[in-house]
# Entry
Amino acid sequence: MTNNIESYLVENRFFEPSPSFSKKAYVSSLSQYEELYRRSIEDPETFWAELASELLVWHKKWHTVLEWEEPFAKWFVGGKLNVSENCLDRHLHDGRRNKAALIWEGEPGEKRTITYQQLHREVCKLANVLKRNGAKRGDRIIIYMPMCPEAAIAMLACTRIGAIHSVVFGGFSSEAIKDRIHDCNATIVITADGGYRRGAIVPLKQSVDNALKNNRQVHRVIVFRRANNQIQLEPGRDVWWHEEMEKAAAFCPPESMDAEDPLYILYTSGSTGKPKGVLHTTAGYLLGAAATTKYVFDLRDEDVYWCTADIGWVTGHSYIVYGPLCLGATVVMYEGAPNWPKPDRFWKLIEEHGVTIFYTAPTAIRAFMRWGDKWPNQHNLSSLRLLGSVGEPINPEAWMWYHTVIGNSRCPIVDTWWQTETGAIMLTPLPGATPLKPGTATLPFFGVDAAVVDEQGETVPPNAGGKLVIRKPWPSMVRNIWGDPDRFKKQYWSEIKGNYFTGDGARRDEDGYFWIVGRIDDVLNVAGHRLGTSEIESALVSHPAVAEAAVVGRPDPMKGQAVVAFVTLKEGEPHTKELREALRQHVGEVIGPIAKPDDVRFAEALPKTRSGKIMRRLLKEIAAGGQVTGDTTTLEDLNVLAQLSGNET
Ligand code: 7RM
# Structure
């Protein structure tokens, strides 16, 4: 068992669901969860079929719930439906016609509220625009937009006509757009002139123009006017969104799609340079998104729900657009940065719109901690009833801050573990049922057969580290990598025979709770001990001076690997030798001498993706003293790298 990941961090804090929350919740006790979970695992097909009838509207019922030929799954075979109809048309007849679907704020401060009826009309019109511009069922359409309602409208319009969308992050470069257009052979691009970020205009159309140089595949670019910045329209190729919409009819019949027709492709940066197009299909994906939105957020009609993710990330797909709209929720959407014009922008939004459910990422939570309590404390956050976290392990210290300062020790926190590939939340508390411990995504969602296993695929004992796998197919699972089934098999289905391999390391504690210890590729090997990154990072973050930390291994002739910690300090903390030594000692005390960093490097900021994940791969190269050579196209801020490489402190 020497190959297993070792685990040392002990977390003893414990929070029972409050009786008042539980009383009203869909699932109101741990035993009720356990009973439902047991049923969902013993007979997943019946379980999911019941939910599919309850949560989705169908043109035609399926004849077979699941066809499974590892690694290829087909769910609800024979069923027909349309995703935009599920998210819009149904709500025109269920009492939600004039309910706010989207409440939007632009970064400069504009506000718009769009009802279900209005959203339906906009989506229909854009669907007609797409058709008139040559889009057909099955075509691939790139969406490269700022965070505005039109981004969601574009996605839904694609689903209305059965076109496959691929949203590219508004922060990515023209190179990234080009690769993606090429990989999926897209023929239409939907974009905007620009969008706002930290007070500046991001020139989106300009990036699209650069990406399209010498491209003969894309015959149409539809440009939404958002920022009024100067752009060029290429005659014969580019058209204005608003001009096209004026000519379009207000109704477009929804295309009847097969349950397994492709819905969207979303690219994730693989470890190789080639982008990896994760393919999701229609019914299973929508069901996974809707079921988890309902139970994990315990969503009510009167909720004002805000997920701060960008629409270019899977979280924006499942938990801004498809899950919440399918359930008829009111969704808040915000265009810009959390600290614009001041670090209280999010809290201002929550107060003003009466947000009840707030879902964000640990990277944001750590930034708010760093900026200080005075910003949230200036606002009345009493509308909040539930908090969520996604994207990385949430360090226990960050969890406690979120719980006390934002949630006023009143709101349950759902720490949700999932991936682009899983389509929907997989490990999570249910807020009325699951006792919480800071730092763990707790237990599997219904139908999710998760396990921590060793190299042979055997389940490891409690508290031993291993690989996180999923043992059974689930409706919202990735169906393929676009154009590359071999890579699909190799990447996810070859590591542990018969199981989906997540790429994450984890341990399960004595209560069966899952603790993610980091990506398997990032695991350190120190003098024969395999250590996950997240425990050492959490130990560092538990020191009062530290805002954020990333730990990587550096080749070391004695120990195999030495532990290098990159640390961002809270505002005003001094970059001294004494503090560096104090941090090493602190890790030694919290975890043990084996995990003590050999090297602590202070950094102004850490390299991250736009969804806030620390790019340890780049830090590894820096720690080894080399130049960064890997793919940096998903990096949010290139300046950070320059700073780190030149940093001798
Ligand atoms: C939703 C999303 C997936 C990877 C995943 C993990 C990490 C995400 C959590 C988490 C610990 C969490 N999709 N991750 N959520 N780790 N606790 N609650 O993030 O495809 O962009 O990333 O993110 O490593 O494998 S993703």
Observations:
- The mean pLDDT is 94.
